[in-house]
Amino acid sequence: MATLDPQNTTRTKFLLDERDIPTHWYNVVPDLPHPPAPVLHPGTGQPIGPADLAPLFPMECIKQEVSTERWIDIPEEIREVYSLWRPTPFFRARRLEKMLDTPAHIYYKYEGVSPAGSHKPNTAVAQAFYNKAEGVKRISTETGAGQWGSALSFACNAFGIECKVYMVKISFQQKPYRRVMMETWGANCIASPSSDTNYGRKILAEDPECTGSLGIAISEAVEDAATREDTHYSLGSVLNHVLMHQTVIGQEVKKQMEMAGEYPDVVIGCMGGGSNFAGFSFPFLYDKLRGEKPNLRVVGVEPASCPSVTKGEYTFDYGDTAGMAPIAKMYTLGHDFVPPSIHAGGLRYHGIAPQISGLYNAGVIEAYAYPQKTCFEAGVMFARAEGIIPAPEPTHAIRQAINEALKCKETGEKKVIVFNLCGHGHLDMAAYEQYFAGSLEDYEYPEEKVRESMAKIPKVQLATA
């Protein structure tokens, strides 16, 4: 159990100075229990090389993707943009503790103070910078709830790059002001599936009412980039360099926990593709993997309607629906997965980052899945206690944090619980309105659907698979 510091009996906020913005990103690959499986070419099924990725990504991101260096320098130009909102605040949730009547100490990192309102600009700024350095004029991408699209739009504007965003149609309809945010920063945002790509037209011909998925939107964005010489593709999660860019979050939290005089017993983050969870937890996992904190629990939380880790299979699968993106070994529900229209749009991805998949498969981290109504219940409890209205995605982490705190109430244990509040819910009021009206529906993704999809995954024959 962590040592509690009696000197911080009333302090709520733990704030860092701009000089405390991390100077390096942390790459978890050297510390993984097992080397990651190779990423495969979608056409040949063989390990992918830098030349295969060059049409889509800047070379510096490709180097970071395959790097085995533990620490990667953050260029000063990126840290300068980071300083618009970083370091982000860290709070002791004293009012929530009182509401729950728990002996546990609950802390949260708040990434909602970024210009886009989430953690996503941490990698968007880096990717835009590296593309600008290579002379790229235009970037295409996909977005679920709109957090990533907003972040990349902001970042592209900062570096003078044109941005095209394919937004999952159901989120495009549910969250119109995300589109307006993107347009304010100069981006072009359209609903996916769209008529702008061959794959989008194919999907619409098969199902004109298709509500879309991240897999479909990725396929459209990849096709867009692959068919234009002036365009690169940018991904907001899953890939190693993306997870790495997010580790500025956890590095700051470690300093802020030192200010609080504590170290966590439990680290919690919501999981979609994995960048938020990785960015928050990997710097703490550094301590666990090195044997310094063997009893640290690291917990990822996902929707019961999109349970990639808790119900998916650990195998090679495409990163998109069309099979144009690279093949990675990960926990997956199958690349043809089309999720139900839950409000946690940022968590509606069929897979999870390979590094996170490997850690879960090795038993290093835990994972839980919850239906959306109990998560919104937790989000409302948090808002009424702490004042911040969370986005639907981090309500999953809040649900787990509350559950852990209530266990401490039963046992009398004084554990230290830390979670990432990765974004605010100011543009998610329609979801809260439905929750209060009692019209939100829970959906448990059936295992038979996973088995159906597993029949369609690529057949991979590698000695390392």
Can you offer a commentary on this structure?
This protein has 465 residues and is α/β, with parallel strands linked by helices. Helix content is 39%, strand content 16%. The protein contains 18 helices and 15 strands. α6 links the parallel β6 and β7. It starts with 12 loop residues before the first strand and ends in an 11-residue tail after the last helix. The mean pLDDT is 92.
Count of individual helical segments: 18
Oligomeric nature of the chains? single chain
Strand arrangement across the biggest beta sheet: 1-4-5-15-10-11-14
Approximate strand percentage: 15-25%
The major beta sheet can be summarized as: 7 strands, mixed
How much is the average pLDDT? 92
Tell me the span between the first and last alpha carbons.
38 Å
Number of strands: 15
Structural class: alpha/beta
- Any idea what the radius of gyration is? 21 Å
Helical residues, percent: 25-40%
Question: What's the shape?
Answer: globular
Unreliable residue stretches: none
Key phrases:
465 residues; alpha/beta
Ordered list of secondary-structure elements with their pairings:
Elements: E1 13-14, E2 24-26, H1 50-53, H2 59-66, E3 71-73, H3 76-82, E4 90-92, H4 94-100, E5 105-110, H5 121-133, E6 138-143, H6 147-159, E7 162-168, H7 169-174, H8 176-184, E8 188-192, H9 198-206, H10 214-226, E9 231-233, H11 240-245, H12 248-260, E10 266-270, H13 275-289, E11 297-303, E12 313-318, E13 327-332, H14 354-361, E14 366-370, H15 372-386, H16 395-411, E15 416-421, H17 429-437, H18 447-454
Parallel strand pairs: 5-15, 6-7, 6-9, 7-8, 10-11, 10-15, 11-14
Antiparallel strand pairs: 1-4, 2-3, 4-5, 12-13
Helix pairs in contact: 3-5, 4-15, 5-6, 6-8, 9-10, 12-13, 15-16
